[in-house]
Amino acid sequence: MPPLNQQDVKRIAALARLELTPDELDLFTRQLGDILTYVEQIRTLDTTGVPPTSHVLNRPVDRSDEPQPSLSRADLLRNAPDAAPEAGLFKVPRVIG
User: Fold this and answer.
1) SS3 78
2) Which of 4, 1, 51 is nearest to 27 (CA)?
3) DSSP characters over 24-76
4) Which end of the chain is more exposed for a tag (fewer CB within 10 A), N or C?
5) What is the pTM assigned to this prediction?
6) How far is C-alpha 13 from the chain's CA centre?
7) Which residues are CB-neighbours of 36 under 8 A, at least 6 positions away?
């Protein structure tokens, strides 16, 4: 695998819609390069005979989906800042766009 360069990091930043300063570009190029080097080291390990796991505890962590008691809508709205109780809604800060 060719080493990561600043053009690669600029392209990744553009995809993530991040604007990087020259210092950040240097830092992230080095850090991401170090991460990829470490991943390559891990890939060289012989994992023959090691069963694949989906969780570090090697046991299912799913539980049955059962309804549980919760707060009423009125209680939730009463405790929420900027709620619209008549509509039954919360007002939350804009996250996207």
Assistant:
1) helix
2) 4
3) HHHHHHHHHHHHHHHHHHHHTS--TTPPP-SSTTSS-------------HHHH
4) C
5) 0.51
6) 16
7) 1, 4
Query: Bridge partners of 89?
Result: 84
Q: Is 84 helix (H, G, I), strand (E, B) or coil?
A: strand
For residues 75 and 21, what is the distance between their CA atoms, to the nearest angstrom? 46
CA distances from 46 to 23, 39, 49 (A): 38, 14, 9
Rounded to the nearest 10°, the torsion over CA 73, 71, 63, 57 is: 110
Per-residue pLDDT band at 14 (split at 50, 70, 90): very high
**What structural domains and CATH numbers belong to the chain?**
6-43 (1.10.20)
pLDDT digit string, tens, across residues 35-67: 999 999 999 999 898 887 766 666 666 778 888
Return the closest-CA partner of residue 9 out of 34, 28, 31, 37: 28
Matching residue, tokens 């008691």: 69
